[in-house]
Amino acid sequence: MDFYKMHGAGNDFIFIEDFNHEVKDECKLAQKLCDRHFGIGADGLVIVRKSDKADSKMTIINSDGSRANMCGNAIRCFGKYVYENKIIDNTKFSVETGDGIKEIEIILNENIVEYIRVYMGKPCYNGEYIPLNGKDKLINCEVNVDNKSYNMTTLLMGVPHTVIFETNREYDVKEGLKIEKFNLFKEGTNVNFVKVNDKNHIRVNTWERGAGATLACGTGCCASVVVAKDLGYVDDGKIFVKAPGGELIIEVLDDGVYMSGPAQFVCKGQSYLVI
């Protein structure tokens, strides 16, 4: 099986093509391929497929075999992949995801892909859609998890995200494990620990549901900027978000959230793993 490996700000993915729907047990395949000791190693598996709703279709599965509706870093890599492999010729195109249709724009510099800009959709604080157990909303609320108190805001940004600001102390990103599985969240949650550096710059460390601590999370960076803006921590306009693996640019506009950032090919090869 031919594969490519890519990363977006250190969040790494294995890409395979499946235009004829030959991949059957894709969740088990993701677990095998993403294993960093017995496989290729990655945070997730991305499958490139045809779509009858958009110009292309992205299926993403986390390293633990769970499905993800959306991933910001993965979709930037996806945009670069389909453009540079000439699956799509235009610099603006649509991608079908588990979170609906996303619009992508390829930003070129002397015919080389410099950035990928993605329309990420609109955030949602409605507890029914996140979904939450027993709460209509969770905005800047104190929640006790394993005898520790956190001020949490949770929203749906393609996938559930909980945002915690480091106003009084710094947090270990591994604290996200118990928060991810806390019974308040029906389907678990991604957890973002955010430090506001100034009105235009924040730092985000993310514990990803199904993948653990990652070097960057695109939807997490978007969610963090949305909450920071709504709570008055940052200004309007472009917000520069520093993750351990690199920097993303997030814009919250009237029609929704836009994310811009790089994507890189790492290698290509053939896998002989059997499932």
Walk me through this protein's architecture:
GO terms for molecular function: diaminopimelate epimerase activity. The chain has 275 residues and is mainly β. The chain has 2 domains: 129 residues, Roll (Diaminopimelate Epimerase, Chain A, domain 1), CATH 3.10.310.10; 117 residues, Diaminopimelate Epimerase, Chain A, domain 1 (Roll). The protein has 4 helices and 18 strands. The chain has an 18-stranded mixed β-sheet that branches.
**CATH secondary-structure class of the largest domain:** Alpha Beta
Mean pLDDT: 96
The first-to-last residue Cα distance is 12 Å
Helix content: 10-25%
What count of domains describes the coordinates? 2
Total helical elements = 4
The total count of strands amounts to 18
Q: Which stretches are low in confidence, meaning pLDDT under 50 for 5 or more residues running?
A: none
What CATH calls the topology of the largest domain is: Diaminopimelate Epimerase, Chain A, domain 1
Spatial shape: globular
Query: Strand percentage, roughly?
Result: over 45%
Précis, in short:
This protein has 275 residues and is mainly β. It is built from four helices and 18 strands. Helix content is 15%, strand content 46%.
Task: Give me some keywords for this one.
single chain, 275 residues, mainly beta, Diaminopimelate Epimerase, Chain A, domain 1, 2 domains, 18-stranded mixed beta sheet, 4 helices, 46% strand, globular, isomerase
SSE blueprint:
Layout: E1 2-8, E2 11-17, H1 26-34, E3 44-49, E4 56-62, E5 67-68, H2 72-84, E6 92-97, E7 100-109, E8 112-121, E9 138-145, E10 148-157, E11 159-165, H3 176-180, E12 190-198, E13 201-208, E14 212-214, H4 218-230, E15 238-243, E16 246-253, E17 256-261, E18 264-270
